[in-house]
Amino acid sequence: MGSELNLSTTESSFLSRAWIGNIFSIIWNWTGVWFSWTRQSDTMLRNIEKTILSCVTTAYKRFYVDIGSVVGQCDKIWTISLNDEAPQTPLVMLHGMGAGVALWCPNLDALAATRPVYAIDLLGFGRSSRPKFATDAEKVEAQWVESVEEWRREVKINHFILLGHSLGGYIATAYALKYPDRVRHLILADPWGFPEKPSNVYEKYQVPFWVRTVAKVLQPLNPLWAVRAAGPAGKWLVSKTRPDISRKFMNYVADAETIIPEYLYQCNSQTPSGESAFHTLMHGFGWAKNPMVRRVDKLHPALPVTVLYGSRSWVDNTTGQQLAQHRPDSDTNVQVINGAGHHIYLDKPDLFNKYVNEACARADADTTFATRIAKTESSSEKRSSGDTQPDLGPKQCDDTNQVSTS
Description:
The longest helix has 30 residues, at 2-31. Mean pLDDT is 81; it is low at 1-37, 206-218, 381-396 and 398-406. The chain contains 16 helices and eight strands. By secondary structure, the chain is α/β, with parallel strands linked by helices. The protein has an eight-stranded mixed sheet with strand order 1-2-4-3-5-6-7-8, sandwiched between helices. It has a domain at 42-198 and 272-366: Rossmann fold, CATH 3.40.50. Residues 90-349 form the AB hydrolase-1 domain. InterPro entries: AB_hydrolase_1, AB_hydrolase_fold. Pfam families: Abhydrolase_1. Its EC number is 2.3.1.51.
């Protein structure tokens, strides 16, 4: 009888989930496409970004890089570059989920003082193209990695220091796993997607039952669906739910409490391309389906890695120590920044800039990189990589959009 009862309960549960799934498939279509009634505007996003970046005193360029058919038909990566004539190793910066290049404004002057710096809007975010990604986690990861590689090829950077925050840290690590000959130093800022999801996650974090229920009901939806569902009230929703982010910019951006929510709203009220891709990667918001902890031992042993965590962040910083344990004979430097949360580059920008600049200086002084490249290239002749990689598609984008300094 017990088995019959379980079977009935299971069937009932399945039917309930199916019914909920049908409801949410409608909501998904409603919230997963661009809303004509939102206040989203490409012109407004461009102007807001320019306003935020006005606090940067170093001369910079803003331009699109055509990367061909990596995911969509004609993908473009929005890029800003500073001090690109300097001879030191370039620093490439990848932002986190829902962010954009302008949020690096407290860091750009300090980091570009002695070297070229490139910050990009990840494909699917900010002002970059918003193609439809795959629905398989491994394929999504590969698509993001190839978008960064195609961008590198188009910008003609042979090797660089790669910095990623949150989701950007996950993508940066995946890139370093596939293209170790391109990365001189990997810097991970409060990276997402490294630990395994605990089997008893609700008990471990003492999550109330009602929170569990809401989380399960909203699981089919993209993380920022409410911003689009709110329509014209989306900016107000951003400002009320995350007022802390605006406050972090008050020393840099005039009227930050208005400008920053507008920027975040403009970035995330568009088609949720990158957001949907992130949803495909995640196993619950805080974890990845293919966590990096399973693969970090495959990073090139000669690749130096710097990991920066915020002491008050929700990200599990024990994975930094696990990374060091998985690479006992490698250069792995883990720093926990006291008083910083997940957005460590905003919470403690001076300390963040200091640690990043120190990592970059070590990369410049690294005399083993040429040897590592030679060994990597000799052992990977059978696979196409770097500039010998076959083109992923004709670059037929409008040349008038190739460079924009507006």
